[in-house]
Design a protein that fits this description.
The structure is a homodimer of 222-residue chains. Chain A has 222 residues and is an alpha+beta fold. Helix content of chain A is 41%, strand content 18%. In chain A, a hairpin with a 4-residue loop joins strand 6 and strand 7. Chain A binds a DNA duplex (30 and 30 nucleotides) through helix 3.
Chain lengths: 222, 222
DNA sequence: AAAATTATTTAGCTTTGTCTAAATTAACCC
DNA sequence: GGGTTAATTTAGACAAAGCTAAATAATTTT
């Protein structure tokens, strides 16, 4: 699938994959340079190297998209990242807001066998601690029919299944308010003044959350 | 203790530490280039960089020795390497001859906290799967009064506690013959013709091993 | 002690991956 | 449709880590 790629090459592939998931394809030089916090000139260099290796297709000044091989490599990186995050939280008791940077390092470890054994050790988890799906060893990704909390109809029971914002402050907010993965809730009322949401949790607790929170939490209807 | 070192710098420190353990100090440019399988010119370059950072002391054409900081860094790398090996064998069911290369990668992951939690997860092991001592978080190394099997007096009961040769063929030889860590044995007879050893295991099995094997197995008297 | 061998350093080159500044091309706006 | 702005590429530099070949120093041999 992939020869030996440098960490830099892997990071670019991941960035391109991430952007294309968000904004579709083709992916511009500019969006990559923003995502990677690097100069546009560096991106041009790397685009040439990755094209050379047939991991991406590039049309001058048009933008980039991943080849099948590039996509598979990116998906495998995502698999590694999410399995390591799961390991760190489940086995080493890190909290979900601490694990991202560590997983960024660990995802570059080269060994198919290691990852497959880690997967088995963790009992083949389908989702990571943030609710993101973990690609299986064939690159298949379990998609879930989830919806943003902000789009949930009133009085529709639902379960929290993921976050759209992975930053520490948001994760800590959820920690404090108890809106963790698996929490069951319904929207009692949508307040039109500022689009905040009046929630009711399974235990009867009521909680008022801002529009911003509603737009960053994924829920699944029950 | 250590600022951020590159993997190359870390590998050189480890090599210097390893050689100085084996052959004492100072460590020559040449021995480093042999150990690292790299050119003497590259070693000269790196020696200059590491001196600059005060990780080693160097006197032109005399040789190198680690500073306190350099030694602490090397010991911490050894700690990481051996803890990861232990993890791979104990938790992911790798065999002891498979784990070295993987640990070489994993030992460069930068996080004190990760290693301390891994240590705890593994229940603070004192020795790795090859019987080598694991430095604790303060860099203390449990030394053992071990002796080479070839130096064990006849009829002195002993336990296998470590290997001096970490290569796959040797480890697989031990696997096949049952001479694993923890095996109890006595030397019944030393055959002067070729210095091979007639062993008797705890279960009564007899086993003839070559001089070479005797010189690569550590045992502890009972 | 001179010659031969071995070890070390220097010089110069290569590849990665980064940068800034300048030049070019594309896109947008009035 | 011409001008302004934004995006992209080119050119030229730099640092890290490696290499080979040549020069120099140290050690061993005879």
């Amino acid at each position: 699938m992939a020869e030996l790629l440098s960490q830099a090459e892997e990071n670019y592939l991941k960035a391109i994959y991430k952007i294309s998931q968000r904004q579709g394809t083709p992916v511009s030089n500019n969006s990559i340079s923003v995502e990677m916090r690097t100069s546009a000139a560096s991106v041009t260099d790397m685009i040439n190297r990755l094209s050379q290796k047939e991991l991406i297709h590039y049309q001058k000044r048009k933008g980039v998209h991943l080849t099948e091989m590039g996509r598979a490599t990116a998906v495998h990186l995502v698999r590694k990242h999410r399995l390591w995050e799961t390991f760190l939280v489940e086995k080493l008791n890190f909290t979900w807001d601490e694990v991202h940077d560590l997983a960024e390092q660990l995802e570059h470890i080269q060994s198919r066998e290691l990852i497959n054994r880690l997967d088995e050790f963790l009992d083949f988890p389908k989702y990571d601690p943030h609710g993101d799906p973990i690609p299986d060893r064939n690159g298949e990704i379990a998609e879930r029919q989830q919806v943003l909390l902000s789009q949930l109809p009133e009085n529709q029971p639902a379960v929290v299944v993921g976050v759209k914002d992975h930053t520490t402050p948001f994760l800590q907010y959820l920690e404090r308010t108890g809106l963790l993965l698996g929490a069951e809730l319904t929207v009692n009322e949508r307040l039109t003044y500022d689009n905040s949401l009046q929630l009711e949790l399974a235990n009867g607790d009521k909680l008022l959350v801002s529009q911003k929170v509603g737009q960053h939490l994924f829920v699944q209807k029950k």
